[in-house]
Each structure stands twice: as structure tokens, then as C-alpha cells.
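> call design_seq(struct)
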């Protein structure tokens, strides 16, 4: 965990105060957590313990299981010591299935097994024990490849028959996963709610007493109807939860499905990690995950981070003396290729993954805050329920409670014990049902529902969410720090300008303008100093040629091929002695190549940096010229190309004495390639055009109050040109310091200066990953909510530090992806903007649901409290309240939490971290609707018999009609108010409603069920059929909520949140206490 995250978490858990201004002092309670990213375990425990929860197993299902996390760490430490025991256990578990699981530990000579000369047991034993002597006995990596029928340069054949044969023999690169919870488990969890259990007990007692006193035919209705309603609530809740869990399972599958390149049939092929087979040859570079167990074939400065397996944060260097590679580890530095020797369950990583269940649960800030809201409402509801219980019991036993026909219910010495118990159970049932309605268990879970929906939809918008909380935090983002290459640009690069000596080659691929010596050195430098590859199929021409590598390398390789470079021939004739992989700090990469008894050291990288190390250059005639004053010419050429938004790359070399070369392999690995006294061969300008939708996306962000900043390793002039084209820099006049700044100028500033400058920066050129981290830290300290993009391994700290880390799905390394919160699958900045829309949509949908639910809560509680205190009876009974709870909790959440994002969301400012969940606009809407519902329904309760012209009816029937009317009107008010909740701050609440099929479906189902309940299920709900006139009146009562909402929205509200008016006296009192 980083320092700032710990500090923030600690302050949140401590309940202290933050903020500098006296008026802005915020006193933190356990639920006031601005960010849960990197929050401490103590903080998470504190808010859970502070929450009033009726069903903990359901409420905290999607939060981090702290106990399981500890168990996972213990299991990780045990794996290496107990690998064989775990393998044996899995063997028994998978008995009957075809499994290739290894139990042996002894090393035996290779013996034919099936179609291969070595068996899976021998391979796994050698790799697991890192048995170097066994490897030598098999003939080293070359002998092992022969046993596995693999060519170390061209890989496996790659045909389906060969791959199938290898999977059958050595297993597939998958592992048995723990099955997700069944639907029955979700039913069991939904059943755990304390209030529902009490209601079931009450229903059972009521059922027994009813049957005893009234017989089976009539006596089962009261208890049976409550039991049925409770089971319906449990069943619907379980279905909703189960659907969410399936969505999360599908997303987890996507996260595990890493794509990588292997060499098959002499060409690089992109496959899923699950399709790797024993015998595959896999290239490795910085940031990659080792996809399976294997042996190093070739490597240069290869360093592996094995902490994911060993638990020790130690970088292990790999060479031919330590060639064993473990699945699941990360490449920390260098490059290499490996031969796969073990996959799936025959690797320690596979065992670990099979032994633990992946817990994707985590806290999100909204979940924490909504637990606080739910706890507060729950305490109020509990107090109301206890009050109602006390009032009803007192009125009952003092003879002030009457039946619907007017007779006193309890007469001392007259009423039988059974009748009294039955009446008391009904009173308790009503009180408990009030608790069910009052405690909004669905409020925190609505976050999970809307996140599950949003995450599924975001996949279609090319964004894979790795951390739930990032989805909602993105809605609060105030700034996006974006890479240039591939994110703002297309990442389709071509060489459009080239200088050799002082001569500009036009067109740049005209080889006739180059001297053979220059061409030869250029070809050698480009072919050897690359991680890319050029594959020409047999009999295929240039049009069928395949070039692989990074976009920059592909562009340079394609240019060199047009100049006549024979890639395969040069690689075969040259012996690569040492490689310095491209380094984002030094902005260059180098290679030492031996050929014809001499050593050439080739460098390629940022043009002005490589130029700074050059003392001579080769002109187009192949003559060596001193750099001298010509350096000004080259610098001017670089600036001109950069001003045309070209990426400038210089290619240079120098000779080195073979006698001075380190002979020993270990010494060579430690050897630092000389980078001084270079000879400049060429400077190329690479065009990478802007993405078509970027300018519009940047404008949308600006209008939404989100500032876009570009951070790039490119030349500042190139960055400036692209920023002007994208709209990040509004005009040429804005292209001055500190709006545009170089990384080195920013990093030398003091911490306080960086904070002041950071907010003004729009473009940072020639930045290193550490500069990006410093900028993120400075912006966060200044109060910004920062989203940052990154694709390289060295971007991991910045991705981890930012509020939202966005890694690139195409160019991003596995290390970057694991450090990020969201993966942008198409590397497109427009997709980042879509994520902002979805983030705002999550927050807005939760607010809609809160407004709707609190309106129902307030109205139902006030109606029942006033009625019970005044008349000793409640118009809404237990079954009716459970139906209202179902509409409000599960169906309401489903309808409102799944509203798709609208353009209107991007016309607002970002939501602040500390802004109240219930805004003044929501309070206004809520109060107006609740007051209307309470007023109308209480008038119906006390004057309904006369208003509805029921005086001629019997008292019992008139009361039943009145109560049925109250119940029907109340439910219809909620149905109509659900439309109002869709657009809390807009006059037209019907925009886009017909496109939201789920919302319309739920409204239709709710209305249809209400008709069925009133017209056909009166025995269960204690209602009677209503005439069409009363139905019209009920509809009219509900319909009034629409014009009322429009009138309400014309009432202005103060900007200062209402909560501050109420909490200020308490803050001042506590401020005195802290002082």
C-alpha cells in the first residue's frame, strides 16, 4: 500500500477531522470514506462493525472476505513445501476424469511415453525441483526440445493434430476451478434476514392458532399469506443475487484470459494463455507474465519477479545456469525466449489457483456510504417499529382497539387466551414488517446491482473493469492523464521522413540514394536491435510478409525491408552478444553484434538523446564526417519533424574491440553497453495520426469539467503538435511553460512547487514513468480525482497511485494490467470517456434509487405511525408492506439501477468526493412526494368512508374498501413516482423511457400484479375488489405525482447542502472538544 492511501485510510478509520478551512472541516465517521483503494483492513472492519445489518451474509457478500484473504496468503506460503500433497489431493478429487497429474519426485532417464521420448512426470519433477543435473542429463534445452519434438527457433508445428496430441499427453494449461455458489446457496443467504425469520415464526404461530380456532378451510389465510409473501421476497431476492453472481463470474473469466504470442511454425501467433501446450516456444519481454513452467532458451539481462509464488519481493536473474521459469511470475527486466515444459495442474501456479477461490469482493466508497445511510434509516425505523408496537399493545390491552365492525377486540376476562395471542402475534407481525420496510437492506446492494449491469455494458464499450470501485470513482474524476501513443493516436506508424547524413531521402524508402556501406550498417542495426520479427512465408512475396513487434519497431522494420533489408539472412549471419532492452528512462535500446571478427554496438532511440551521444556521422556516400557544427543542422531537422507531429528516432552505432569483450556469460550480463562516441547513421520521422474521435472526446471531457492532460515520452514539439490537433491545447498561445513542460524540468521542482505547477500542466513531454507518478501524486494532493492511463511495466506505480488506473488492452503489459483498475480493450481515448459516462451513470442511478426508496420509507412509516397512534389500527398490513418492500427494494433497484447513461450526465461537473449522497434537489423531490402521499392517504384513512360514499355499507365492508383503496393508491403512487425518480433534475422524465425495456417491463409487471392482488388475492392480502370508479380514483391519485414533480422542480434550492445546516452545531461542539 502506498503512503497516501494509508494516510487517507487511517484518517477515515480514526474518525478525525480533515480540511483546512474552519467552515469546511469535515468530521469523519466510519462511513465517511472518500476512497477505498488501498484502504487499511482496520478501516474496513470499522465500518462493517458500525453498520446496522439484518442480514450480514447478504449485505457484505460482494465485499472483501478478510478471513479468506489471510487463508489465501497462508496457502500461498504452503504451496512450495506441500506441492506433492496438494497434487495427490487433486488427483483423488478428479478421479475418473482424464488428468495428467504428477506425484513422483525421482529423476529417471528419459523414456518413451506415448508419442514422445519423455513423460509428463519427468518434466514436472525436473521443473518443480529446479533439477539442473536432470536437465543436463536430457541434453540441455536443445536435447529437451528434441525429446519434445520442438524446434527452438520455429517452435511447434502448430497444426491442430499436433496441439491435440500434446494436450492429451501433457495436459492443458487450465486448472480445476472452484464452482460458484448454486442458486440454493443464494436462497439460504436471503433466508438469513433476522426480520424475515421472525415473520416466518409469527406466520407459523398465526397459522397454528387460525387453524385451531377457525378450522383449516378459513384459518390458514392469515398465517399462510404472510408466509407466502415472505417466501416470495426471499425467492425474488435470491434470483436477483444469483443473476449478479453469474455476471461477475463471466467478468472474472475475461480477466483471467490473458493473450500472448508464441512461435509456431516459425511465425509469431497470438493465442489465449489457456491454449499454451508443452513444447511451445514463448518470447518474453518486460512486463509479461510467465504463462507456464519452462526452461530458458536464450535471454539477455532477463530478471524475473517471483514474489507471486515465493512471497519474497526478490528479483531473480535467469541465465543458462539458472534456466528454470515458474508459471505466474512476471518479467521484471530484459528479454528472452522459453521452452514450455509444464502446464496447468502440473505447475505450482496451477496448484495454487486450483486450491484457492478467487475473491473479487471489495468495498466501494458508495457501498460504505450507503451502509451509513441504511444504518441511520434503520435506527429510525427500528425506533418507529418499537413505538408502534408499544402503542398498539397498550391500546389493545386497555380496550381501545376495535375490529372493522366496531367491536372491542380485547375484554379482560372475556377474550380467550388463544384469541389474545393471535391478536398480539398480528401486532408483532406489523411491527416487524415495519422494520423490514424501514431498514433498506437493498440500498448498499443496489450499488452491486448497478455495477454488475454497468460492468457488463462497459465490456461492449471496450472497457474491462478489474476493480468495482473504479467504475463509480470514474464518475468523480476531475482530470485524466493520458498517454499519447496508441491512446490519442492510432498506433499505426509509418516512416514518412528520413535523413542519412545531411541528405533528406525523398521518398524515404529509395535505397538508390544510399551508399552500400550505409545500407549494410543500417540493415544490421535495425535487424539486430529489435524485439520485432519479419516473417516471409515460403514462396511468399513482400505483400504476404508479416512484421511483428511494437508499432514503432514495425514501422522501422517495414522501412528497412523497403530499403532491401533481408531480416532472416542478417540474423543468421550475426551473433548477438548482449542486449540492452529499450528503457523508458534512457529512451533508447542497444545491442552488441559480432560479425566478421568485429563487434558493432547499435543504438536506437529518442532522436535528440541519441544525437547528444554522437561525435561523428556517416554521410549518404558512406564517408565518416565529424559532427561539429552539423549537430545544429540535425537538431533543426528533428525540431521540424517534431513540429509536424512526427515521432523522431535516431539510429547510430560504434565499433568495439573484440578483445575487450567480457568472455564469461555472467560478466557479459553485467556489462554496460558503451553509449558514447557514437556514429549517427540515420534520423527517421514516424507518422502516427490522431484517432478520428479524439478531438470530440476531449471536448466532451472539457465540457464535463474533466481536464485532459497528455503525458508522453516523445519530444515536446511532437507532443505539442498532437495536443493542438486533439484540442488538449486550445491554441498556440497556450503552448507556453508551465502548460507544456519537459519531464526533467518538472522532476527537479520542490514538492510544493510541483503541487502549484501540476494543476496548470496540459502537456508533459520526454517524461519518464517516475515523472508520471510525481504528477499523479501532486494532483491528488491538490484535491484532484485522478485517472491515469499506462501500458508499460514502469507505469505500474502511477497506475497504482492514481484514483483510477487505466491500462491498455492491446499494448499494455501484464504488469500494467494487474496494477490497473480498468483495462481499455481497444487502447482508445474515446473509450476512456465512455468509462467516465458509465461512472457518472452509476452514481446517478444510485441517487435515483435512494430518492425513490426514501419516499416510500417516509410515507409508509408516517402513515402507519399516525394511524396506529390515533386509531389503534394500521391501514397497511404485514402482507401489503412486504409487497411494497418487494417493489421498493428488489424491483425498484432493478428498474432504476440499470438506467443507461445519457449525454446529460456529461453536461455536469464531476461529483466531489465529499458531496452528500442525498442532494438538496433530491430532498426537495422526496419531501414533496412524501408529503403528498401522506396527506392524501391519511385523509383517506380518517375520512375515506364519507369521501368514498361508503356510509351505506356495513362498517366492516366500508373499512375493508377504505383500506384496500389506501393500499392500492399507495402502490400506484410508487409506480408513477418511479418515473419521477428517473430524472431528479429534469422536467421531462419520459426521455428515453421507451428504450429502457427493463424499466418498462418492471413497471408493467408491478401494475399487472397489483391488479391481480386487488381483484383476485383479497383473502391473502386482506383486501376487497374495487369498482372501476375507485380504480380511476386510485390512478388519478397516482397520476397527480407527475404534475406535482414538475411544479416541485421549479422551486429553487440553496447550494449549501441541507446536511450542513443540521450538522454545523454538532461540528462546532466537536471542534471545541478537539481543541
Amino acid at each position: 500500500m502506498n503512503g497516501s492511501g494509508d494516510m487517507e485510510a487511517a484518517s477515515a478509520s480514526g474518525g478525525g477531522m480533515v480540511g483546512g478551512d474552519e467552515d469546511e472541516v469535515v468530521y469523519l465517521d466510519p462511513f465517511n470514506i472518500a476512497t477505498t483503494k488501498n484502504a487499511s483492513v482496520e478501516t474496513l472492519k470499522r465500518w462493517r462493525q458500525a453498520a446496522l445489518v439484518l442480514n450480514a451474509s447478504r449485505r457484505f457478500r460482494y465485499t472483501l472476505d478478510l478471513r479468506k484473504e489471510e487463508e489465501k496468503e497462508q496457502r500461498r506460503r504452503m504451496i512450495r513445501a506441500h506441492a506433492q500433497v496438494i497434487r495427490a489431493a487433486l488427483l483423488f478429487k478428479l478421479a475418473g476424469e482424464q488428468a495428467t497429474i504428477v506425484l513422483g519426485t525421482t529423476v529417471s532417464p528419459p523414456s518413451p511415453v506415448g508419442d514422445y521420448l519423455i513423460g509428463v512426470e519427468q518434466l514436472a519433477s525436473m521443473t518443480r525441483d529446479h533439477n539442473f543435473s536432470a536437465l543436463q542429463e536430457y541434453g540441455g534445452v536443445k536435447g529437451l526440445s528434441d525429446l519434445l519434438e520442438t524446434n527452438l527457433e520455429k517452435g511447434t508445428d502448430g497444426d491442430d493434430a499436433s496441439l491435440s496430441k500434446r494436450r492429451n499427453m501433457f495436459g492443458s494449461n487450465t486448472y480445476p476451478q472452484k464452482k460458484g455458489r448454486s442458486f440454493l446457496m443464494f436462497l439460504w443467504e436471503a433466508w438469513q434476514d433476522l426480520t424475515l425469520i421472525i415473520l416466518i415464526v409469527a406466520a407459523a404461530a398465526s397459522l397454528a392458532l387460525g387453524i385451531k380456532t377457525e378450522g383449516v378451510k378459513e384459518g390458514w389465510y392469515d398465517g399462510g399469506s404472510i408466509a407466502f409473501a415472505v417466501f416470495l421476497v426471499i425467492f425474488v431476492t435470491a434470483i436477483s443475487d444469483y443473476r449478479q453472481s453469474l455476471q461477475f463470474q463471466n467478468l472474472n473469466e475475461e480477466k483471467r484470459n490473458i493473450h500472448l504470442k508464441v512461435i509456431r511454425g516459425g511465425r509469431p501467433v497470438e493465442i489465449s494463455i489457456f491454449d499454451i501446450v508443452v513444447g511451445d516456444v514463448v518470447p518474453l519481454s518486460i512486463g509479461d507474465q510467465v504463462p507456464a513452467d519452462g526452461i530458458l532458451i536464450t535471454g539477455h539481462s532477463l530478471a524475473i519477479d517471483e514474489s507471486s509464488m515465493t512471497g519474497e519481493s526478490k528479483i531473480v536473474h535467469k541465465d543458462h545456469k539458472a534456466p528454470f521459469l515458474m508459471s505466474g511470475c512476471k518479467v521484471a527486466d530484459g528479454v528472452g525466449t522459453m521452452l514450455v515444459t509444464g502446464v496447468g495442474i502440473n505447475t505450482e501456479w496451477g496448484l495454487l489457483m486450483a486450491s484457492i477461490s478467487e475473491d473479487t469482493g471489495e468495498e466501494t466508497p458508495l457501498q460504505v456510504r450507503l451502509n451509513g445511510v441504511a444504518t441511520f434509516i434503520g435506527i429510525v425505523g427500528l425506533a418507529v417499529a418499537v413505538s408502534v408496537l408499544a402503542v398498539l399493545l397498550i391500546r389493545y390491552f386497555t380496550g381501545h382497539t376495535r375490529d372493522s365492525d366496531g367491536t372491542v377486540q380485547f375484554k379482560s376476562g372475556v377474550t380467550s387466551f388463544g384469541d389474545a395471542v393471535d391478536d398480539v402475534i398480528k401486532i408483532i407481525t406489523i411491527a416487524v414488517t415495519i422494520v423490514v420496510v424501514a431498514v433498506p437492506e437493498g440500498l448498499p446492494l443496489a450499488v452491486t446491482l448497478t455495477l454488475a449491469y454497468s460492468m457488463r455494458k462497459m465490456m461492449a464499450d471496450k472497457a474491462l473493469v478489474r476493480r468495482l470501485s473504479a467504475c463509480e470513482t470514474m464518475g468523480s474524476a476531475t482530470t485524466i492523464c493520458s498517454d499519447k501513443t496508441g491512446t490519442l493516436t492510432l498506433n499505426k506508424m509509418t516512416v514518412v521522413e528520413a535523413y542519412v547524413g545531411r541528405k533528406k531521402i525523398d521518398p524515404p524508402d529509395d535505397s538508390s540514394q544510399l551508399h552500400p556501406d550505409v545500407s549494410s550498417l543500417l540493415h544490421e542495426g535495425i535487424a539486430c536491435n529489435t524485439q520485432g520479427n519479419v516473417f516471409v512465408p515460403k514462396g511468399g512475396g513482400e505483400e504476404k510478409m508479416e512484421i511483428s513487434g511494437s508499432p514503432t519497431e514495425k514501422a522501422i522494420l517495414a522501412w528497412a525491408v523497403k530499403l532491401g533489408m533481408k531480416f532472416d539472412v542478417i540474423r543468421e549471419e550475426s551473433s548477438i552478444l548482449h542486449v540492452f532492452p529499450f528503457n523508458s528512462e534512457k529512451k533508447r535500446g542497444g545491442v552488441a553484434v559480432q560479425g566478421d571478427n568485429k563487434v558493432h554496438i547499435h543504438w536506437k532511440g529518442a532522436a535528440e538523446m541519441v544525437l547528444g551521444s554522437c561525435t561523428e556521422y556517416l554521410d549518404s556516400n558512406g564517408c565518416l564526417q565529424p559532427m561539429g557544427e552539423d549537430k545544429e543542422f540535425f537538431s533543426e531537422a528533428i525540431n521540424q519533424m517534431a513540429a509536424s507531429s512526427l515521432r523522431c528516432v535516431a539510429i547510430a552505432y560504434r565499433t568495439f574491440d573484440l578483445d575487450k569483450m567480457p568472455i564469461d556469460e555472467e560478466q557479459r550480463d553485467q556489462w554496460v553497453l558503451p553509449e558514447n562516441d557514437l556514429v549517427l547513421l540515420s534520423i527517421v520521422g514516424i507518422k502516427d495520426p490522431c484517432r478520428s474521435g479524439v478531438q470530440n472526446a476531449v471536448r466532451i471531457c472539457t465540457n464535463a469539467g474533466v481536464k485532459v492532460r497528455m503525458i508522453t515520452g516523445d519530444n515536446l514539439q511532437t507532443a505539442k503538435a498532437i495536443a493542438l490537433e486533439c484540442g488538449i491545447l486550445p491554441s498556440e498561445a497556450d503552448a507556453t511553460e508551465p502548460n507544456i513542460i519537459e519531464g526533467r524540468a518538472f522532476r527537479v521542482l520542490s514538492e510544493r512547487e510541483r503541487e502549484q505547477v501540476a494543476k496548470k500542466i496540459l502537456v508533459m513531454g520526454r517524461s519518464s514513468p517516475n515523472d508520471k507518478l510525481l504528477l499523479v501524486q501532486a494532483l491528488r494532493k491538490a484535491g484532484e480525482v485522478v485517472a491515469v492511463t499506462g501500458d508499460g511495466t514502469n507505469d505500474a506505480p502511477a497506475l497504482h497511485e492514481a484514483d483510477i488506473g487505466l491500462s491498455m488492452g492491446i499494448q499494455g503489459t501484464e504488469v500494467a494490467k494487474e496494477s490497473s483498475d480498468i483495462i481499455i480493450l481497444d487502447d482508445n481515448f474515446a473509450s476512456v470517456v465512455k468509462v467516465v459516462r458509465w461512472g457518472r451513470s452509476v452514481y446517478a442511478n444510485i441517487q435515483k434509487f435512494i430518492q425513490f426508496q426514501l419516499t416510500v420509507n417516509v410515507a409508509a412509516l408516517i402513515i402507519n405511525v399516525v394511524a396506529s397512534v390515533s386509531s389503534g389500527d394500521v391501514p397497511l398490513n404485514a402482507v401489503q408492506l412486504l409487497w411494497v418492500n418487494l417493489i421498493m427494494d428488489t424491483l425498484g433497484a432493478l428498474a432504476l439501477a440499470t438506467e443507461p447513461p445519457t449525454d446529460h450526465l456529461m453536461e455536469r461537473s464531476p461529483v466531489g468526493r465529499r458531496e452528500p449522497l442525498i442532494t438538496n434537489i433530491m430532498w426537495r423531490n422526496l419531501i414533496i412526494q412524501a408529503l403528498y402521499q401522506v396527506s392524501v392517504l391519511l385523509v383517506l384513512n380518517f375520512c375515506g368512508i364519507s369521501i368514498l360514499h361508503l356510509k351505506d355499507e356495513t362498517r366492516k365492508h366500508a373499512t375493508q374498501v377504505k383500506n384496500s383503496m389506501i393500499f392500492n393508491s399507495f402502490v400506484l403512487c410508487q409506480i408513477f413516482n418511479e418515473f419521477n425518480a428517473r430524472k431528479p433534475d429534469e422536467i421531462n422524465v419520459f426521455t428515453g423511457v421507451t428504450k429502457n425495456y427493463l424499466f418498462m417491463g418492471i413497471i408493467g409487471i408491478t401494475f399487472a400484479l397489483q391488479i391481480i392482488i386487488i381483484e383476485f388475492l383479497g383473502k391473502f392480502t386482506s383486501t376487497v375488489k374495487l369498482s372501476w370508479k375507485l380504480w380511476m380514483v386510485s390512478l388519478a391519485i397516482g397520476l397527480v405525482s407527475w404534475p406535482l414533480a414538475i411544479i416541485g422542480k421549479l422551486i429553487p434550492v440553496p447550494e449549501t447542502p441541507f446536511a450542513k445546516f443540521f450538522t454545523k452545531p454538532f461540528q462546532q461542539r466537536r471542534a471545541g472538544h478537539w481543541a
